[in-house]
TrEMBL record:
Signal peptide: none annotated. Residues 1-232 form the Helicase ATP-binding domain. Gene3D superfamilies: P-loop containing nucleotide triphosphate hydrolases. Coiled coil: none annotated. PANTHER family: DNA REPAIR DEAD HELICASE RAD3/XP-D SUBFAMILY MEMBER, FANCONI ANEMIA GROUP J PROTEIN. GO terms for biological process: double-strand break repair involved in meiotic recombination; nucleotide-excision repair. This is FANCJ protein. One of its GO terms (cellular component) is nucleus. The keyword Hydrolase applies. It comes from the Eukaryota. Keywords: ATP-binding, Hydrolase, Nucleotide-binding. GO terms for molecular function: ATP binding; DNA binding; DNA helicase activity; hydrolase activity, acting on acid anhydrides, in phosphorus-containing anhydrides. InterPro entries: DinG/Rad3-like, Helic_SF1/SF2_ATP-bd_DinG/Rad3, Helicase-like_DEXD_c2, P-loop_NTPase, RAD3-like_helicase_DEAD. It comes from Smutsornis africanus.
Length: 235
């Protein structure tokens, strides 16, 4: 401790040290890591959240990240099989003079969960629960789930949301300093391979080759396009 005959024994110095210690403790405690729980399929997320409801941690703030295939409630977009993502983006950008009514109601879902938490009625939920509530409130479940991630203690999602860097970036997922749990992790190898793989049809290759032929024949960045054309031809 401080000696009794020099300035370090003064009350001000002691208070200053105590204040610095307190600030350090507060800064250390300010960051609370999230738990990212990755599963192979969306069905497994349903099973896990069902089990979570049965535990003492049922009231923990959570969210489930999933694709528009499971969460979009827009009657036109959700009925489309092939290009839901593109149609959603067009509505968000206001193309063709139309916008998404459900996207503008996202705050209704967030406020609903905040109200439940304030009244200590918050409990674990599943994708179907969120979609059902979204339809009732005319609010987008897809973007509401992403918004709920900010205050969530645990985030459920498929493997590729954690493994694929492009998906992580688009979903604003930052895993630095967080806790990551992978269910049935022996499937990770296949999922990682799929994340960096892409499938093309023969007709797509032919179309690409024709476009590259046009580029090369018209002296448009030949050095870049000739190797690409060679790849298409070899495939």
């Amino acid at each position: 401790g401080p000696c009794t005959e020099c300035s370090c024994s003064s009350g001000k110095e002691t208070d200053k040290n105590a204040s610095n210690t307190k600030k350090k403790e507060n800064s250390d405690q300010s960051f609370i890591p999230k738990i990212f729980f990755g599963t192979r399929t969306h069905k497994q997320i349903s099973q896990i959240t069902r089990e979570l409801k049965r535990t003492a941690y049922s009231s923990v703030h959570m969210t489930i990240l999933s694709s528009r295939d499971y969460t979009c409630i827009h009657p036109v977009v959700s009925s489309c099989v092939s290009n839901r993502n593109e149609m959603c983006v067009e509505l968000l950008e206001g193309k063709h003079g139309k916008s998404c009514l459900y996207y503008h109601g996202v705050h209704k879902l967030s406020e609903h969960h905040a109200l439940q938490s304030a009244h200590r009625m918050y409990h674990a939920w599943d994708i179907e629960d969120l979609v059902s509530l979204g339809k009732k409130l005319h609010a987008c479940a897809y973007f509401a789930a992403r918004e709920l991630m900010v205050g969530a203690d645990i985030v459920f999602c498929p493997y590729n949301y954690l493994l694929d860097p492009q998906i992580r970036e688009s979903m604003d997922i930052n895993l630095k300093g967080q806790v990551v749990i992978l269910d049935e992790a022996h499937n990770i190898e296949d999922c990682a391979r799929e994340s960096v793989s892409y499938g093309v049809t023969e007709s797509q290759l032919r179309a690409a080759r024709e476009e590259l032929d046009f580029m090369v024949n018209n002296n448009i960045r030949q050095k870049d396009h000739e190797p690409l054309r060679a790849v298409c031809c070899s495939l």
